[in-house]
Amino acid sequence: MPAEAAMAGTVAAVPPLAMTGIGKHFPGVIALDNVDLTLEAGKVHALMGENGAGKSTLIKILAGVYGKDAGTIRIAGRETTLSGPADALRQGIKVVFQEIALISEFTVAENIFLEEYPTGRTGSIDWRKISRDAKALFERIGFDVDTSARTGTLPISQQQMVEIARALAQEARIVVMDEPTSSLTPNEVALLFTVIRRLTSLGIAVIYVSHKLDEVFEIADTVTVLRDGRHISTKPIADHTNETLIQDMIGRQIDDLFPRSRGQASDKVALSVKGVGTEKLEDISFEVYSGEVLGFFGLMGAGRTELAKAIVGFDPIDSGTIAVGGKPLRPHDTRTAVSLGIGLLTEDRKGEGLMLELPVVYNLSLAALGSFARGGFIDERREREAAQSYVDRFRIRTPGLYQEIKNLSGGNQQKVLLARWLLKGLSVIVVDEPTRGIDVGAKSEIFALIDQLAADGHAIIMMTSEMPELLGLSDRIMVMGEGRITGSFSRDEATQEKILNAAIV
């Protein structure tokens, strides 16, 4: 064998990244304990685990945000220390976080070359070259975008493509994607996967961090699972099933991801919506029954969240009527809605649902404070007892009632919000994207809670973009498109194909 060929084979075998024995400690917490991660060039390596498993800490070490306390990092076979994000980028590592790190007022081209603008002979910035080079980068990933557009005007899916183009501009050989599809439609997810495959065809190694099992099985070559800060397994994705991957993630089997303990819904109408119209909704009519889970599906912009906010009195309506238990929602506001027994579990739990700096007990009791008042003061003992009963019932994992809720996992935060409305005594609960940003173990618990609430006679209206939970939990399914209801299916007749066909209008 010629020496050059032998040398090429040796170089090709060197992994672009090898993290060995990585450890990281925070005060009172072991975040990572002897964790290994090795990538292959031109492959997608999924990183999975429950919230708190250590995924984010490992990624932040790789991004140069945190320093490691133990272990070694080798890039292309060379041991290195990542002194900061700029150093990580210089060494070929680009992390695309959930929160897109672009300057919204800058153009696409300006954002791509933000770290180093090309200059002309005079030393001034060569704006024409910036535009040409930006367009060439998008051609490499097979995506068309207006490089002169202000980045803040673009949808999230296109902003992600700008981040990927930035990675190519910096000649990154390792691209990390952290929950990249959390705000994307199915069509946008398909486009993202096409771009990821284009990256791997260029020899780039991709780390794909996600809670979504179906996506990982579709896009990943290999999957590493972390649990409680420790490395549990690294296997080719072909060696896994849904069940084995879940078991590695949570340390136990989930016999049924979508439990169903409830029987048939009653014939009692819990909520009636007739001819409701708003600025974004047109002639919406449906009924939901006590003991029923009514699922709503739609692509991005279909109007699901707008409908959720309209039927709980948050957004105004221009026409139509809404009645809860036969009583009209008048005046049309949230105070009246709650007094009639209907409330919203918002999709933006941190921005619209929780008071992040306050403890669990205050977040849980917020809607029902009046029931704990005596002589103008809150009976804190009764408040604590009521809150503790729901912490126990919902198995909310918290060190105590006075733990700040921002320190709880997403799944436990969601349980607190559900408990808040039950403590208030609501009969109809609207849940908008109930498992967004929640790991699979917590998802199974949320699914079980929704099923149990319906079994107890509550009416649940569930807005979701997750097809498995839509089909797994719903008794009936309504499909929306462009602010209208475009399809309705019973549990028995609903299929993914029928639902998607109805959603495309």
TrEMBL record:
UniProt keyword Aminoacyl-tRNA synthetase, yes or no: no
Keywords per UniProt: ATP-binding, Cell membrane, Membrane, Nucleotide-binding, Repeat, Sugar transport, Translocase, Transport
Tagged with keyword Cell division: no
Gene Ontology CC entries for this record: plasma membrane
Highest taxon in the source lineage: Bacteria
Protein's membrane topology: Peripheral membrane protein
Residue ranges annotated for the ABC transporter domain, each copy included: 17-253, 252-505
Intracellular or extracellular location(s): Cell membrane
InterPro entries named in the record: AAA+_ATPase, ABC_carbohydrate_import_ATPase, ABC_transporter-like_ATP-bd, ABC_transporter-like_CS, P-loop_NTPase
GO MF assignments: ATP binding; ATP hydrolysis activity
Pfam annotation, one family: ABC_tran
Predominant location: membrane
PANTHER family: CARBOHYDRATE TRANSPORT ATP-BINDING PROTEIN MG119-RELATED, D-ALLOSE IMPORT ATP-BINDING PROTEIN ALSA-RELATED
Family the entry assigns: Belongs to the ABC transporter superfamily.
The protein, known as: Ribose transport system ATP-binding protein
